Amino acid sequence: MGGLPLADALALCGLLAACDPKRYERAALRWLQRVRVLVLAAVLSLMLASARSAQAAPIACGNTITASVKLTADLVCSGDGLVVLGDNTVVNFEGHSLTGHGTGTGIITAGESIFIKNGTIQNFAEGAFDNFSGSTFLRMNFNNNGQGV
Question: Is 149 within 8 Å of 130 (Cβ atoms)?
């Protein structure tokens, strides 16, 4: 990690283990934690890439959206409508509506720079819930919801 060749790093580890076993153990644990973080980051990255490629499927009630999408039809939902997770995501309703039956939340957002635009959210207990206050609603109509945004 700092430009030290592997053979030299291993030799240094051997010397450190012989001279100061406690210090060697602490250093080894820190190194393992860093490796764990890198592996976790790689796994999460692969999961996100998989979720983004799966996003091409038609949008349905209850979907979790992780990449920018355009609705292709009106949606009628019996519970919550859509959940939008992630940063820099656009959900373009393309003039379509998200309609509930008086319960649930129309759209739940969590992330930075989320844009919800060009549609209608109606007949939910709560039209929209923004978890991190990073969402912008453009040209959206909220009709007959118990609460708007």
Answer: yes
Model pLDDT for residues 37-70, shown as the tens digit of each residue? 777 667 767 777 655 554 456 899 999 999 999 9
Q: Which residue has the tokens 């979720």?
A: 51
Picking from 92, 119, 123, the residue whose alpha carbon sits closest to that of residue 106 is 123
Helix (H) or strand (E) holding 21: helix 21-54
- What is d(CA 43, CA 4) in angstroms, rounded to the nearest whole number? 27
Task: Report yes or no on whether pTM surpasses 0.70.
Answer: no
List, for residues 93-122, the tens digit of each pLDDT value. 999 999 999 999 999 998 888 999 999 999
Cβ proximity of 91 and 119 under 8 Å: no
| In contact, 67 and 55? CB cutoff 8 Å | yes
**Residues belonging to the chain:** 149
Question: CA 21 from chain center: how many Å?
Answer: 42
How many whole angstroms separate alpha carbon 26 and alpha carbon 3? 21
Q: What angle do CA 40, 62, 86 make, to 5 degrees?
A: 40
